[in-house]
Specification:
seven-stranded mixed β-sheet; alpha+beta; 8 helices
């Protein structure tokens, strides 16, 4: 199986996303570039996240729409969004798009910014962009518009107003850790709002310090994804096959 390790990492991320109920069954999509310029990438077919295996993932070409055609092909929005990202954003080696519950609640608010109210939400301080101009399904033109919002390499999280959330990164481990922590941080924020009491927001200086202390830790990212894979392996899951 070509790109076996990358496929297994991505399949594990799909399985854990389903376990955490951060998915829409077959409708959301993750991708991972497998060549130097990022134009060829792995992506999921229309198969439930909880059933995806490494061998199920397609390799499609961002410059060849016909590579995304056929039985069980990735849905058109997967092509429109991910092909655009891999064509226009060189540092987007991996991209993950979900409609997870709390991130989508955040995307529905008039102010969709995630403020730094705790250590986890501080990860995203000055490192998030809010898309204020939702234009319908993420087909080719909409995908290209979204990709243009990721031109600052320090910004790797997009709250897609009226839609969901999108993460990019260099590896599966980095990108999935960002997805996971964002959903947890959004949950904390939404629950805090529900109390109706004033929020204790970190100062910009402390929020930036905390963000810097937590970013770029590739060992922590590898430990995070490795731990999830160990659980799946111990349960006899077939995700890596």
């Amino acid at each position: 199986m070509d790109h076996a390790r990358q496929r297994a990492d991505l399949a594990a991320a799909f399985r854990w996303t389903a376990r955490e109920n951060m998915h829409e069954g077959v409708a959301n999509h993750f991708s991972l570039a497998v060549n130097d310029d990022g134009t060829r990438f792995l992506i999921n077919p229309r198969k439930h996240f909880s059933r995806i295996r490494a061998s199920d993932l397609w390799v499609i070409d961002a410059d060849d729409p016909e590579s995304a055609q056929g039985a069980d092909a990735p849905d058109p929005t997967a092509w429109g969004l991910h092909a655009s990202l891999h064509r226009h954003v060189p540092h987007a080696r991996c991209a993950m798009h979900v409609h997870s519950t709390y991130a989508t609640v955040l995307a529905c608010l008039a102010d969709s910014r995630l403020p730094p109210i705790d250590q986890s939400s501080a990860i995203f301080h000055n490192r998030q962009v809010v898309d204020e101009n939702y234009g319908g399904l993420a087909l080719e033109e909409e995908g290209t518009r979204c990709a243009r919002l990721f031109q600052d390499p320090s910004v790797r999280t997009m709250i897609m107003g009226n839609h969901g959330v999108l993460f990019i990164g260099e590896t599966v481990a980095e990108t999935f850790m960002r997805l996971y922590y964002f959903e947890r941080a959004a949950r904390t924020y939404v629950l805090a709002l529900q109390t109706g009491r004033p929020l204790r927001e970190l100062s910009p200086e402390i929020a930036e310090l905390t963000a810097r202390q937590q970013e770029g830790d590739t060992a922590a990212e590898a430990d995070f994804l490795g731990g999830l894979r160990e659980v799946l392996d111990a349960e006899g899951a077939d995700y890596a096959s």
